Description:
By secondary structure, the protein is α/β, with parallel strands linked by helices. It has 1 helix and 7 strands; from the N terminus they run H-E-E-E-E-E-E-E. It starts with a helix and ends with a strand.
Amino acid sequence: MKKNFLISIIIILLALALVLYSFDKKSPDYNLDNSLFASQNVITHTIEIRVNEFSPSWLSIHAGEKVIWINKDNSPHTVTSQDKELNSAIIPPNETYYHIFENEGRFTYTCSLRPVLSGEIKVGPER
């Protein structure tokens, strides 16, 4: 009986140590696109994700510019386009996703978890 109790205490302490250790780690990078090695001198635009909208929901930029989506909601969201140009992982609250647009065109996107959220980015020629 004492042996089982001691083993249970050791397991609980190991689990607690693992939880405490994980809080000390940097949060994961939710950006899975082409911009990991991009130049730091890129013009950047910000879109906030809120309960009922991407704000702004429409943006006009130039090729080579970066857009950052910041999840300001209490729920997770995604940034997903049908043409697969935008295909974020799930973005938890207070986390970000970014993408550098290399090609001209119009890119419409939604949140795959809440498709009523939608937005569009018009990308013109490079500056």
